[in-house]
TrEMBL record:
It comes from Clostridium homopropionicum DSM 5847. GO terms for molecular function: antiporter activity. Pfam families: Na_H_Exchanger. One of its GO terms (biological process) is proton transmembrane transport. It is a multi-pass membrane protein. This is K(+)/H(+) antiporter NhaP2. Coiled coil: none annotated. It is found in: Cell membrane. Keywords: Antiport, Cell membrane, Ion transport, Membrane, Transmembrane, Transmembrane helix, Transport. InterPro entries: Cation/H_exchanger_TM, Na+/solute_symporter_sf. Its main location: membrane.
């Protein structure tokens, strides 16, 4: 084994150990001071990152950084899929579809328009800022709503939207990027690409989910029923990798896998109770660890010199995203869905909930690495959005649900 391989392995192990340990410490502090744990995980990343102690630097750990963010988001999205009840989702499918497509477009347009005015940028570049921060974050929303007693309709709409709008946000970003780098912006081609990316992910996720479910059932096909946790892990990785290989949405695929695995009874598939308990405990521990790792790593990405340079303009753009773009996009998206029978209070809640996280951070990082002109502005706005939405919106979501009397 070469020296470089040994060194890379040691670096990866160091990274995992430091990130998990810091996450555990911050989780304990969160319990004591009653602050949202996500905020403290990000703070841990800031302290450990290049801005302070420089123990974790993404330039030193590029593979570990990408592995944690990608696999972490994929597994948490799978966990979110398992929380979805197909009977409930069927009632709100139009709302979810519109929120994840029309809603993302509206949010991109409004945020981009104001970003152009605030930063004095070309409109197309400003729209790129809008598209990067348009999608919501399942790695925050899934754990958040698992611990809240609100209606299944509202909970599953928000979680499903966060799964589906990642693909839309990424495709709009790449379409605008293509136009900026010498191509042309084609609405038809972008829509077709979205259909291919999302549709391919749905097909792959369905196939992997059905196979995994059959392998761990009680009947004669379930010859691997003693290994539900291992099969779930392999299925998540397999569905993601297979989808991405064919340029489909890996995140969509793992979400669909989760939906199928979480609705086994509708497929007449049952697993022994002891194995179900084992799988549930494994899934819970994995989700907790990965959530810690994701947000500690995101904290290490924050560049204070860039934030200090643009913070006032960043803040204005993010406030427009929260108080203008999200309310308008959510209201327009759900107003046409008569079947869902949304109440005024439920619509108000949908207009508020929108946390920015892993996918926008990944898109911003990619654009910075391409060394686009003014790409540091994208990075600055994105991380300002992450900090504000995770500290402000995530921490007030439970209070707002109580205020609107939406808790069951």
């Amino acid at each position: 084994m070469g020296t470089e391989t040994i060194e890379a392995t040691q670096q990866l192990l160091e990274l995992i150990a430091v990130v998990i340990l810091s996450g555990v410490v911050m989780a304990k502090i969160s319990d004591i001071v009653k602050l949202p744990d996500v905020v403290l995980f990000i703070l841990a990343g800031v302290i450990l990152g290049p801005s302070f102690l420089n123990l974790i630097n993404i330039d030193r750990y590029p593979l570990g950084n990408q592995l944690i963010l990608t696999f972490g988001a994929a597994y948490i999205l799978y966990d979110g899929g398992r929380e979805i009840e197909l009977k409930v989702l069927n009632k709100v499918k139009l709302s979810v579809l519109l929120l994840a497509t029309v809603g993302v477009l509206i949010s991109t347009a409004i945020t981009g328009f104001f970003a152009a005015k605030i930063f004095h940028l070309d409109l197309m570049f400003a729209l790129l800022i809008g598209s990067v921060i348009a999608s919501t974050d399942p790695s925050v929303l899934v754990p958040l709503f698992k611990n809240m007693k609100i209606s299944s309709k509202l909970k599953q709409t928000i979680i499903s939207e966060s799964a589906f709008n990642d693909a839309a946000g990424a495709i709009i970003t790449f379409s605008i990027l293509g136009a900026l780098t010498g191509g042309s912006l084609s609405v038809g081609e972008s829509a077709l690409e979205l259909l291919k990316t999302a549709g391919g992910g749905i097909i792959v996720g369905t196939i992997f989910g059905l196979i995994a479910t059959r392998l761990i059932t009680e009947n004669r096909m379930g010859f691997l029923k003693e290994f539900p946790s291992e099969i779930s892990l392999v299925t998540v990785i397999g569905a993601y990798v297979f989808s991405e290989h064919f340029h489909f949405s890996g995140f969509m695929a793992v979400f669909i896998v989760g939906m199928i695995c979480g609705n086994k009874k509708m497929l007449n598939c049952f697993i022994p109770e002891e194995h179900y308990i084992t799988q549930s405990r494994f899934k819970e521990v994995m989700t907790i660890i990965l959530r810690m790792m994701i947000f500690v790593m995101l904290g290490t990405h924050i560049q204070f010199d860039v934030l200090a340079k643009y913070w006032q303009s960043d803040l204005l753009v993010v406030l427009i995203l929260i108080f203008v773009a999200r309310p308008v996009s959510a209201f327009v998206s759900v107003m046409f869905d008569r079947k869902a029978k949304w109440t005024f209070k439920e619509i108000m809640y949908l207009m508020w909930i929108r946390e920015t996280g892993v996918i926008p951070a990944a898109l911003a990082g990619m654009l910075v690495s391409m060394k686009l002109p003014n790409s540091e502005i994208i990075s600055s706005v994105t991380f300002t959005a992450i900090i504000i939405t995770l500290t402000f919106q995530a921490s007030t979501s439970k209070y707002l649900a109580k205020l609107l009397k939406l808790e069951e």
